Amino acid sequence: MKKKIVVFPGDGIGPEVVEQAKKVLARVAEKGKIKLEMQEFPIGGASIDIYGVPLKEEYLKEAKKADAVLLGAVGGPKWDVVESSIRPEKALLALREGLKTYANLRPAKPYIALLKASTLKPEVIENVDILVVRELTGGIYFGKPRGIKENKKGYNTLVYSRKEIERIAKRAFEAAMLRKNHVTSVDKANILETSMFWRQIVKEVAVAYPEVRLDHLYVDNCAMQIIRNPAQFDVILTDNMFGDILSDEASMLTGSLGMLPSASVGDKKGLYEPIHGSAPDIAGKGIANPIATIASVAMMFRYSFNRMEFSDMIENAIQKVLDAGFRTKDIDDGTGRLVSTQEMGEEIVKRIE
Ligand code: IPM
Ligand code: MG
């Protein structure tokens, strides 16, 4: 097997966590006799500093040619002042749009060893295993018209086509069939026409998946239920903006944003990144948790390369390291051994077998 991977380390803690993930990739490639070709390019603020734009067209082209893309994180206060059309975050949107990765999969499952790291009671989060399926290339993030007019008003457009809703709904139902056969579609259909349409299309798609139970929740109620009784959920299917918010909320069930990976997939390409941001406040200190990025590599093997055995191998190694008590600062519960970003990466690499 031969694979081309484009790596965008990005800003803040991005390069530190990506470095550890690359070690894991290299180790798995060695084990699995996979020929890896890796190319690395700047993105976000790092790219603005060099080229004046958050993502060069040329690098987007390379990413489109790759079998998979691994990304650290983008953004930071240094670039908060730049004009909105070239903000670091624009690079992410350009990648998602360019690679047509319309489905963002964000699992939230607490590690047993870390039950105490959550701000919620262990008995509330014990059986939590949620997959947020977020629509990623449409909705209010991309809808037109958009803009700020003459310093008098700002506006964005929330729009979804039938095709966009159908394809993301199918993804959610298919994911549910490999899990607990339950989809909760989240919308604001008591007020937004786009949501009424969303709900109608999701019901139509559901007909082809009779074994999957479908419920609908309004987003405000869902936000409350995620804290009240998160174990009731299996797959949460939702639009771009609601998914952005609910996935951050769901991540907190696991204790740390530093633990959670994500996969953004379309019909062909996959983009893998931790769900956390660039965390400029802790960048360069060697204390960031690389687990989310390493777990994103595990998702890459699952969703882009269809090699579950390697995905399991990485996930097992993470599990073992946590069971052995290794903790980065964000998940330090006083019971284990505090390690740096690099040590955490190395401990995981050692346990890949
Ligand atoms: C995320 C992030 C991005 C988003 C930002 C950085 C553009 O919050 O991946 O969830 O809103 O999609
Ligand atoms: Mg977000």
How is the topology of this model organized?
Blueprint: E1 2-10, H1 14-32, E2 35-40, H2 45-51, H3 57-65, E3 68-73, H4 88-99, E4 103-108, H5 122-125, E5 130-135, E6 147-149, E7 153-155, H6 162-177, E8 182-187, H7 193-206, E9 213-218, H8 219-228, E10 235-238, H9 240-251, E11 261-265, E12 270-274, H10 291-303, H11 308-323, E13 326-327, E14 337-338, H12 341-350
Parallel strand pairs: 1-2, 1-3, 3-12, 5-10, 8-9, 8-10, 13-14
Antiparallel strand pairs: 4-5, 4-11, 6-7, 11-12
Helix pairs in contact: 1-10, 1-12, 6-7, 8-9, 10-11, 11-12
Bound molecules: 3-isopropylmalic acid and magnesium ion.
Magnesium ion (MG) binds next to helix 9.
* Strands, total number: 14
What is CATH's topology name of the largest domain? Isopropylmalate Dehydrogenase
Strand content: 15-25%
CATH architecture of the largest domain: 3-Layer(aba) Sandwich
Helix content: 40-55%
Notes on the structure:
- This protein has 353 residues and is α/β, with parallel strands linked by helices.
- It folds into two domains: 1-101 and 257-353, Isopropylmalate Dehydrogenase, CATH 3.40.718; 119-254, Isopropylmalate Dehydrogenase (3-Layer(aba) Sandwich).
- Helices cover 40% and strands 20% of the residues.
- It contains twelve helices and 14 strands.
- The strands form three sheets. It has a ten-stranded mixed β-sheet, with helices on both faces. Strands 6-7 form a two-stranded antiparallel ribbon.
- A hairpin with a 3-residue loop joins strand 6 (147-149) and strand 7 (153-155).
- The longest helix is centred in the first third of the chain and has 19 residues, at 14-32.
- The protein is globular, with a radius of gyration of 20 Å.
- The mean pLDDT is 96.
- Bound molecules: 3-isopropylmalic acid (IPM) and magnesium ion (MG).
- Magnesium ion (MG) binds at residues 244, 248.
